[in-house]
Write a structure and sequence with these properties.
The structure holds two protein chains of two kinds. Chain A is an all-alpha fold. Chain A is built from eight helices and no strands. In chain B, helix 1 runs antiparallel to helix 2. Classes of the chains: A mainly alpha, B mainly alpha. Chain B: This is Helix-turn-helix conjugative transposon-like domain-containing protein.
Chain lengths: 184, 68
């Protein structure tokens, strides 16, 4: 029996390009039996699965890489590292990054705070003066920062290291107390 | 299931050149991250992917013999 090995199907061609596979196939053509047939089938499935797997996963790899770059770019755009750049100046000597130029507000005191003024010294109305004196130090300090220096609640909260809500509450309590004292 | 036919290590070895090639398209800083991502995806696929209609060798031979 003539062994037919001139296949057009590229899969068969590639499979029989392996000497071992070819030998098995020739053997089968000469003496067909189920044992060899089973062996060829097993080998073929192994061979075929590898081709399919490589093709399939190549696509997966490609898309994973592409999506990864897209995600990466999105991330870079959203979280720009402005502070790590060296600014627009052309001379990069010493290369000071922008983050080194940020002022630490907690490390500096404003001019008004350095004077260390008391709230009551700004009051002219005698009734109001009396009311203010009845407040505790913390309440006076908050009212001072709020009305004399004109800080916002948020700014005060940063100075005193508490939440903005706490400042707002203390301030309102102090004001309510003052109001009660005046009305009384 | 693919995992019945190929071990993960063998599959990764088969795909090594393709992975390398794709890694070069991203920034050098992120290559390791991407490689990890790819390997994760491959192992995931290996666990879940099924190929349907796997032909047997002799089916293809029969087809070849049929006059067109």
């Amino acid at each position: 029996m003539i062994v037919e090995i001139q296949f057009k199907n590229p899969l068969l061609k590639a499979f029989l390009a392996d000497a071992e596979h070819l030998e098995l196939y020739k053997q089968y053509c000469r003496t067909p039996n189920d044992c060899i047939k089973q062996m060829i089938n097993d080998r073929f499935i192994q061979f075929y699965i590898r081709i399919r797997a490589v093709a399939y996963f190549s696509k997966i790899i490609h898309y994973t890489a592409r999506n990864f770059d897209i995600e990466r770019r999105k991330y870079d755009q959203r979280y720009v590292l402005n502070l790590d750049s060296t600014g627009n100046e052309s001379n990069n000597e010493g290369s000071i990054t922008l983050k080194e130029l940020i002022v630490d507000e907690s490390a500096t005191k404003s001019f008004y705070e350095q004077i260390e003024d008391d709230l009551e010294q700004h009051i002219q109305n005698p009734n109001l003066y009396k009311a203010i004196l009845s407040l505790n130090e913390r309440q006076k300090h908050i009212l001072y920062l709020s009305f004399i220096i004109n800080y916002s609640d948020t700014e005060i909260s940063k100075k005193l290291n508490v939440t903005q809500q706490a400042i707002s509450k203390s301030k309102n309590n102090a004001l309510a107390k003052v109001r009660r004292m005046i009305d009384a | 299931m693919i995992k019945e036919y190929i071990s993960p290590l063998e599959l990764l070895e088969l795909l090594r050149p393709k992975i390398k090639k794709e890694l070069y398209q991203t920034d050098a800083r992120y290559r390791e991250d991407l490689e990890q991502e790819i390997v994760t995806k491959i192992l995931e696929g290996l666990r879940t992917k099924k190929f349907h209609s796997i032909p047997t060798f002799f089916e293809l031979v029969e087809k070849e013999k049929q006059p067109k």
